[in-house]
Amino acid sequence: MAKLKNLLILTIALILPYSCKVWNNLNLYTPNDDVALGKQVVAEIEANPKEYPLLPERGNEAIYKYVRGISRTIVNSGQLQNKGAFAWQVKIIQ
User: 93 pairs with which residues across the strands?
Assistant: First the structure.
């Protein structure tokens, strides 16, 4: 049984990098699906402030500036497809 388990782990270890390379550009969701999911998540967060307490921007300008800087770097990296399809926001949950 241990040999079979080791063989299975080795097989996965050998196949996984290849499969990731082959499927790297595969996305099962359209940008519209992602936008709809984003709106759903925002609505859930806004509807449950006790569960998702947002850090107010006033008094926390430095951390918001820092996180927005990271966000801008990622969004403008040239690595995102369809970046214009999304309304990018930064909200920090405490």
Answer: 54
User: What digits encode the pLDDT tens for the residues 17-26?
Assistant: 544 545 566 6
DSSP state of 93: B
Which pTM was predicted?
0.64
* Phi, psi for 54 (deg, rounded to 5): -80, 140
Can you tell me the mean pLDDT for 9-18? 55
- Is residue 88 within 8 Å of residue 38, measured between CB atoms? no
Let me know if 83 is exposed, middle or buried by CB neighbors in 10 A (0-12, 13-18, 19+). middle
Q: For residue 35, give the nearest of 92, 84, 91 by alpha carbon.
A: 84
3-class secondary structure per residue, 14-78: HHHHHHHHHHCCCCCCCHHHHHHHHHHHHHHHHHCCCCCCECCCCCCHHHHHHHHHHHHHHHCCC
**Amino acid of residue 34:** D
